[in-house]
Structures are given as C-alpha cells and as structure tokens.
Design goal:
There is one protein chain. The protein is an alpha+beta fold and 243 residues long. It folds into three domains: 59 residues, RNA-binding S4 domain (Structural Genomics Hypothetical 15.5 Kd Protein In mrcA-pckA Intergenic Region, Chain A, Roll), CATH 3.10.290; 91 residues, Pseudouridine synthase I, catalytic domain, N-terminal subdomain (Alpha-Beta Plaits, 2-Layer Sandwich); 79 residues, Pseudouridine synthase (2-Layer Sandwich). Strands 7, 8, 9, 10, 13, 14, 15, 16 and 17 form a nine-stranded mixed sheet that branches. It has a four-stranded antiparallel sheet with strand order 3-2-5-6, with no helix packed on it. α1 crosses α2 and α1 crosses α4.
C-alpha cells in the first residue's frame, strides 16, 4: 500500500499549504488512526485522518481526478463559503461535488467582478496562489479622474501603500473620453483591494474593476455573470505538467 507524507495529504484535502500543515502537525492537531501525528508521519488510502478531532475525507482514498472551473463572478457576491452579513456567495452556483470540495484560487472583493478559478485539488490551488510563481493578474479598470502621463509613470515605477510598495507591470489605455476611461493593468500579486488602492494614491477613483486573466487562464467572452465552465481533462493535464 503506497503512502504519502501527511502534510502533502492534508494540502491535497484543501486545508492549506504544506508548510501550514507542518505547523498543525507540530501543534498536535492531527491524528492518524487515533494516534497524534508527528513531523515525518505518513498515511495511506485506508488510514483515518483527524483534524482537531474531526475525521476528514482521505484524498488518497478518493482518487478523484483534478477538476478546474472558470467562474464569472458578479458584483455583489462575496468570495467566501458563508457570511452572515451577505446572502450571495461565489459558491452558490457551482456544481455539487460527490467527493471533496471546491477550493477558491484567490479572491475578489464584493464590488469587483470577473474571473475566479475553482479546483478540487488543494495542492494545485496552493501552487496557483503561491507568491513564488508570481502568476500575473490582469484587470480591466474604468477610472474616474484625470490620468496624466506622470500618473501612469508612477504606477509603473511603484507607489507606496500601507502594506508596502506596489507597482503595475503594464498599463494600457483601452478607450473612453475625458475623465471616464478604461485601462488594462497587469500585476503579479493579489493583495487586498490592491488595484483600487494604487489608483487612489494618484487621486484617481476606480469606478469599475473586472479581472479578465489569472496566469494562463483568460475569462471566455461568452461566459455570462454567474456562469462557469469546466476545463477539459486535456487542458487540466497540460496545466499541471506546466507548473
């Protein structure tokens, strides 16, 4: 019977990164067949794994294929499974999984629409979000305010936010007149409300924000708000082999 390191199994189950899972193991939060696990512990498909006293579905036993969904998030949906303050979440329209659960790759704030990625493979989700890979995020941005050449220059050079320096890799004008114009911007990280805050440093207000690309994933033009499309097995395999 083949076994895997416990932190890898927990990551595949969508509970967090391998490093986070190592911390949980060190804290004594994980049990295998009733015994508290230690760093270096392994488990197989038939082993019973518990997290904080609760048995989880062992991903080695499920042997489910990796699935990836592209979802067009509308404004007004929260990027969370549930929140008492909001009735609509991005998980409401996803297809039911008989095994495992959908894991969200990154987030979009309540007033931002566009591309979200979901997968049932926790390890893949963590890799797509890890800063080490620096996957590009591209947004269509409608701004209200005068955008002079020095504004674009500053955003490309870098502006200081409360949580550190931030800069766009690319800023392209895409149309509009006067003080209401569209731009496409590209950056390689996903801090909270980063695009909006960057424009605000230049006295420019973002009135519409749509994510149109995440890494190699581009939102199909035909995908309506609140709709999803699933990648084919060939597309999923090609992505995994590339990472």
């Amino acid at each position: 019977m083949s076994t895997e390191r416990l932190q890898k199994i927990l990551s595949q189950a969508g509970l967090g990164s391998r490093r986070e899972m190592e911390t949980w193991i060190e804290q004594g939060l994980i049990q295998v067949n009733g015994a508290t696990a230690t760093l270096g512990s392994s488990a197989g498909p038939e082993d019973k794994i518990s997290v904080r006293g609760r048995v989880i579905a062992n991903p080695l036993k499920l042997q489910s294929k990796t699935r990836i969904l592209l979802y067009h998030k509308p404004i007004g949906e929260i990027s969370s499974r549930s929140d008492p303050k909001f009735s609509k979440t991005v998980f409401d329209h996803l297809p039911h999984l008989k095994q495992g659960r959908w894991i969200q790759v990154g987030r979009l704030d309540l007033n931002t629409s566009g591309l979200l990625i979901f997968t049932n493979n926790g390890e893949l989700a963590n890799r797509l979000m890890h800063p080490r890979y620096g996957l590009e995020r591209e947004y269509a941005v409608r701004v209200y305010g005068e955008v002079k050449p020095e504004v674009i220059k500053a955003l490309l050079k870098g502006v200081m936010l409360d949580d550190g320096l931030a800069k766009f890799k690319k800023v392209d004008f895409r149309g509009g007149e006067g003080t209401n114009a569209w731009y496409h911007v590209v950056l390689s990280e996903g801090r909270n409300r980063e695009v909006r805050r960057m424009w605000q440093t230049q006295g420019v207000e973002v009135s519409r924000l749509i994510r149109i690309r995440y890494g190699d994933f581009t939102m199909p033009r035909f995908l309506g708000r609140g709709e999803h499309i699933e990648l084919s097995t060939e597309e999923v395999d090609a992505l995994i082999n590339k990472l």
